[in-house]
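Table S7 (text form). Paired inputs.
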Amino acid sequence: MSTPMAESPKRSRRPRRRFDDDFKAQAVRLVLDEGKSVGAVARDLDLTETALREWVHRARANRTHGRTGLTTAEREELAQLRKENRQLRLEREILKNLSRTGMPCLLWHQKLQTRLSSLVPWEQWPPAYWCLRAR
């Protein structure tokens, strides 16, 4: 016979909270400047240690101008570059598919047309892509 497993009480998730930059800076100052531990400050301010530890990590990177990690500006630039890279991969894939098909006009893509026209005039596009120019 099997015995029923004891049901563990489920903890409800804490609702997601938002903190302004001033609050984060004060919490980080307590850790970095006053030497308090991350755990103690997190308990005092009713924060999760993980969140406070991430704020401290970012603040250290900003204070050392990137020697201990990515600065905020570098992190924003990296996100922008990753987004642009994803877009370029998509466009390259679309162009590959267009060149393989016999009827490239069936794959009209407005963003691609705008992007291509900003790079070179449509007269310089390969003939297979002429159908993508603005009509």
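Next pair, protein 2 of 2.
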Amino acid sequence: MLSVSSPAQVHEAAASRAATDRERMPKYPEDLASDRSMRLSAVIRKEGDLYASWCPELDIASQWKTEEEALSNLKEAVELYLEDEDAAVPDTPPVIKTFEVEDGMDARARRGKGSLGAVPNLREFQRSERLWDE
């Protein structure tokens, strides 16, 4: 039995015992999530009738009927992935940039057919490949 002589010692002993009891208690998923939370990115876009969601840091994707459900499903997929002890988690966030390109035929016309900047269409590429094989 613990012997104490002042109210301060009683309080200190109670706090020490409570801390020891907390250490012995099992950790629940909610506790683990709060201990090691991380902020990740989500890219969401409409694809047909569904919304596709993608986490670029972990290259995990999901989809559903609404943006909110697509994000919720993505979060669940990421949490399941992170439960694996071998899950690869990046040390740094991705660098996400935006850029502009010219629209289709106008850009190709400006570059000129056959120029170094022109990308052949699939049929032209396949035709050239057959010529090399013959």
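The beta strands are 43-47, 50-55, 60-64.
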